[in-house]
Write a structure and sequence with these properties.
Shape: rod-shaped
Oligomer: single chain
Number of strands: 0
Helix content: over 70%
Number of domains: 1
Number of helices: 2
Radius of gyration: 24 Å
Order of helices and strands: HH
Structural class: mainly alpha
Largest sheet: none
Amino acid sequence: MKKKQAAELIMANLDLKKAEEYKKNIKGLEEMMFMTSHKVRQPVANILGLSDLLDQTINSPDEHIQLLNHIKQSDLVLDYFTKELMLFISHLEQKGKIKNMPN
């Protein structure tokens, strides 16, 4: 009877550890989704809006230069964020590798 209870406790403990690991993975995915939806969406919306302005009739070359500068700035923000996201993903992968290393 005690062996059966011990085995059940071991299995319950393993299930709990799996659930905790799953929860950590979900948290990492939620962070990535938040970062993507907030940090990517803004520069993309900026670029789309600026592109629409370029499609309209603009009389002065200075206006073109100003809009292009705004597009370049949004591009730099996107570039920075993609690097930040890749570092975040790499960090999550490294945490997973360290945690799953044999003792």
